[in-house]
Amino acid sequence: MKQLLEVAAERGLYVEWDPRLGSNLRGYYDCDARTIVLNSRGSLTVQKYALAHELGHAWHNHAWTGDPHADASAERLADEYAARLLIDPIEYVRAERLVGPHAGAIAYELDIAAEVVTVWQRILRKVPRVGYPTPLRRSDRSA
Hints:
The protein is mostly helical and 143 residues long. It is 56% helix and 10% strand. Strands 1-3-2 form a 3-stranded mixed beta sheet, covered by helices on one side. Helix 2 (44-59) crosses helix 3 (68-86). The longest helix is centred in the middle third of the chain and has 19 residues, at 68-86.
């Protein structure tokens, strides 16, 4: 959490906690005030994810539009930003080798929310596989 708070401070963002946020709201980013408000009733794991997610909104300069399509796209980008902040690729590989591909088991190993692992796995599926040329067979070389 300390590192995430340092990232926020470096970017000139304020972070506040509010116990009055509803149980379904982990936090929000107020673009005009450059303030991230986190639900103080969430666990530390949830608060870390919420802070990383809201840092993603700040990074992309998102503001709530009320347009479901635009807001859904903004949420996806903020989730992906959070996953990149919270997951070290080498640690992810180590955890997956240890416990397999189950998001919950990996999350437990990495001490992060399972939702973050799910987003990370979605990012990995988006990365194109490296294609290598098929070597010529001996009969093809002579032609």
